[in-house]
Amino acid sequence: MSDIRGTDMYCSPEAQEEIRRRLQGFGPEGIHFLDNGNYHYVTKLFVEKIRIPFSLVLFDHHSDMQQPLIHELTSCGSWAGELLWKNPYLRQMILIGPDPKTVRELPDRMRKKAVCVSLQEAGEQTAENEIKRIDMSLPAYISIDKDVLDRYGARTNWNQGGMSVRTLERLLSGVFANQKVIGVDICGECSLQEPLREFLEDSRINQTTNRNLYSFLSGRLYSSQPS
Questions:
Q1: Which of these, 87, 14, 22, 97, lies nearest to 55 by C-alpha position?
Q2: Contact by Cβ (8 Å): 200, 158
Q3: What InterPro entries does this protein map onto (predicted)?
Q4: CB 62 within 8 A of CB 99
């Protein structure tokens, strides 16, 4: 899809329609790699295909529920808010790993359907109370932005959190143990504009994590599918 104009960070209505057209043959099931965080809004286009009540489990250092500067455009920082507010099948969004400041800034209307678990909170009780709000009866779609990880696990084009890959896999195991998982997507690659030496090192780290996550997820996702 690299030939589609109007997609980098902000996605125009025309570009969205073209992406939808090219995704017609692909459902939300499976594992999808979406490039860097500038294109995380593609998650919205995948979950639009889900026609049953579901929850979105979002691993992200940012809420992606901000008001876009250009209101008529979907952005990589606004797509989750649009989805939460407009998608009739999305009953709950579980946001894991955001900066606590971004959680405090969420409007009250978002908080009603969003469960926000920040690993940087001072008290574990706050996180535990939020986790108790999760409706385990809903099937889940998982979206992972690798900017939730520390720099040992990923090198992204956005500021990052401090989660280790091992912690991410432990939390993912909890989702698979308690909910039927529909599909997964992963974004958070580094910028193509980096100096070559930095780009090669960052790409090596990302590729290692991508391979490990694919192996980890496919072993659970496909083994749980009916034959």
A1: 87
A2: no
A3: Ureohydrolase (IPR006035), Ureohydrolase_dom_sf (IPR023696)
A4: yes
pTM: 0.91
10-221 CATH, one of 3.40.50.300, 3.40.50.1820, 3.40.800.10, 3.40.50.720? 3.40.800.10
Q: Phi, psi (5° rounding) for residue 205? A: -65, -45
26-52: pLDDT as tens digits: 999 999 999 999 999 999 999 999 999
The residues near 92 (Cβ < 8 Å, ≥ 6 apart) are: 55, 56, 113, 114, 115, 134, 135, 138
Domain residue spans of the chain: 10-221
Query: Coil, strand, or helix at residue 206?
Result: helix
d(CA 186, CA 168): 12
Span between the terminal Cα atoms of the chain, in Å: 32
Q: How far apart are CA 130 and CA 118, in angstroms?
A: 10
- 51 near 89, Cβ under 8 Å? yes
